[in-house]
Amino acid sequence: MLPGLRARAEGAGGQAGEGFPSVPAPRPRRTLESVIAKPKPPVGTLVLVDDHAGFRQAARAMLTAAGWQVIGEASTGATVPDMVMRLAPDLVLLDVVLPDTDGFAVAERLAAAGCRSAVVLISGHDRSDFEGRVRAAPVRGFLAKEMISGRALAQLLGGDRP
Amino acid sequence: MSQPGPGLPRLAAVAVSASAGVLAFVNAVLEHRASVPYYSAVPDALVGWAYITGGMVAYRTRRLDRTGTLMTAIGVIWNMNSVALYVHALLPYAAWLGGLVDVLLAQLLLQYPSRALRSRLERAVLAAAYVQVLVVNGVRTVFANLHDYFPCPCVHSFPTVHDPAVFRVLQTEVMIAVVVLGSAVVALVFRRWRRSSGPARRALNPVWFAGIATVAALILEALLGFAPLTAAQTSAEDAVVTVILLSVPIALLIGLVRIRQSRSAVADLVLALGRAPGPAGVRQALACALGDPSLTVCYWVPETQTYVDADGHPAAADGLSAGRAATEVTAHGAPLAVLVHDYELLDQRPLLDAAAAAARLALENARLQATLAAQLEEVRASRARIVQAGLEERRKVERDLHDGAQQRLLALSLTIAMIRDQVKESADHDGQLPSLVEAASAQICEAIGELRELGRGILPAVLVHDGLAAAVETLAALAPLPVTAHVEPTRHSPAAEATAYFVIAEALANVARHARASRAEVTACQSGRQLIVQITDDGIGGAPPHGGSGLTGLADRVAALGGQLTITSPAGHGTRIRAELPCG
């Protein structure tokens, strides 16, 4: 696991609940909201880069529920390197097709800037569409957007462990 | 213009001056006058004769009648001057009007070859020269003592007031005027020469050069008038000027010969037209015959009421550039073509007309070809536009699909996945809830998968974003048989890339469906301005030569881009599909 990720995971033990002010208070059970909103213990921080606001919203809710703390969002590639260097998240979820550039170029810039965050490319397209470039990119992996889940991310990040 | 040919009065004048010239020559040779050595009398008489002869020939030439008149006049006045050397009663008149030779020469040069003086400056200089000769020179002669110049008893009826002081002032003025006006004439003629161009120069050059040389010699003579020269020096100088004066009529005759030569060009044109039909041949033949390599031909298309060039492209309608002129050619009273040529060619109107007449039939033929070319061009362009628009439409639909419905489905799938996870963890749920949510999750993933395939079929994103090489790699990976792909990673125009992609996709689909092949190979490389795409398999061959319906549509699309699709499929020896696409 990444050093940052481990530190947060260890240090966050006693603070569950306090660290997520955006999470609404528990409601009566058996409603959708109560099911969705129930947080897991925090697993790390992430920055989400995608140009579709609707998708970001759904992804944020899902990742939050999976225990991720979404500390930054961006809809274009240009602002990403600055934001990531500033926030130093454990994970960057990076859409491949962005309005101003593409995820590969952003990943290159992050790597060039010495970013230590894990980068995972996401896309509405199939992996086979970008196979060669994904393999060559300085990223932890690729996830089709519908495959994003806490488990899939944990698998990708854990799989890197030496 | 009137029918060329000498009128009676001119003939009479010529006869008188001619006999006078003979008289002068005979006199000079027989009498050995001290003031007129015979070696100067010979060229003297020659000058008069040369100008008269040149003038007569020019007068018989179309459009050079004014030059001919002026030249004859110069010869007549010159001979008059010569006669005056022996008939002393004429001496003061010769001293007065002899300068007309210079002025007429200036007018000849300024009006050569067209009749009109083109600028106000030219008119002003010429008017000043006439005033100088007719008025100032007349007054000077009144104050002159002719005995100083001709040591002989002079009996004449010219009014004289002998006053050396006034005479000296006027004499100086006359010489200055010759220098100033002569220089102006040289400058103006030089300007005319520079402005003329192309074919006109060839015929006109000799006269202009000789004219400038002659006027320059006259200026030099006037300047030498300020220097004290011995009698021998003066007569030598006279002889030199006389010889130079001869150059103008000789040059004119050379120019006329050249014009005659250009007329025989029409005969050559007729032969050339027979040898080289077609728009390019007609243009070349006309350019050659008229001696204007820059000549272009535009054809009138009655259907569209426009002019087109030989290839059927619309001709520029925004008038002619400087120094160009247009000559319209009509057939049966309707416009046929326009020849755009050097402005100076207008001076050879008859040649132009003759050439146009000779080329009419060939021009009509060429127009037919140009019209066809124009229509073909239009069809080709519209076909390419349609394909382009279709591709653009595909691209837009794919993007809309991806950015719209698919993103919503993706968001929905995440929400459902989340619900699924939560339901699983939740202890108190309905018995059916987990399986229902699981089913919804699976369905949504299927829907997304189908939508993705749909988008890929419309126009794959990988092709748009990463180019043909990456897209073919994906195709190869998805194909049900082993496919080796050798595609250069260079990017081409979107139309070329998309067409190449669809050809490869359709060909690979055909291989999978019909060929019973064990493997296939795809290559794409740029050769010159073409993208060459080849798909080969080791299957049973025997594909119809024009492809199935899918390939026929693709062949149309390839052709619309200006490319070519060929299918080689001998039975039992596999199939090769080759597309050549312009990609510049």
Integer average pLDDT of chain A: 78
Extract low-pLDDT stretches of chain B: 1-5
Give the low-pLDDT segments of chain A.
1-21
Largest sheet of chain B: 5 strands, mixed
What class do helices, strands and sheet pairing of chain A give?
A: alpha/beta
> Given the structure, what is the number of helices of chain A?
7
Q: Mean pLDDT score of chain B, rounded?
A: 81
Number of strands of chain B: 9
Q: In whole angstroms, how far apart are the ends of chain A?
A: 9 Å
Indicate the structural class of chain B: alpha+beta
Biggest interface found: A-B, 32 and 36 residues
Helix/strand order of chain B, N-terminal first? HHHHHHHHHHEEEEHHHHEHEEHEE
* Helical content class of chain A: 25-40%
Q: Tell me the β content of chain A.
A: 15-25%
Sequence-ordered SSE layout with sheet pairings:
The complex is a heterodimer of chains A (162) and B (584).
Chain A: H1 3-11, H2 32-37, E1 44-49, H3 53-65, E2 68-74, H4 80-87, E3 91-95, H5 103-112, E4 118-123, H6 131-136, E5 141-144, H7 150-158
Parallel strand pairs in A: 1-2, 1-3, 3-4, 4-5
Chain B: H1 8-31, H2 38-59, H3 65-84, H4 91-97, H5 100-111, H6 120-143, H7 164-195, H8 199-224, H9 231-275, H10 279-290, E1 296-301, E2 306-308, E3 324-331, E4 334-342, H11 349-425, H12 433-458, H13 461-466, H14 468-478, E5 483-487, H15 494-515, E6 520-527, E7 530-537, H16 549-560, E8 564-568, E9 576-582
Parallel strand pairs in B: 5-6
Antiparallel strand pairs in B: 1-2, 1-4, 3-4, 6-7, 7-9, 8-9
Helix pairs in contact in B: 1-2, 1-3, 2-3, 2-9, 3-4, 3-5, 4-6, 5-6, 5-8, 6-7, 7-8, 8-9, 9-10, 9-11, 10-11, 11-12, 14-15, 15-16
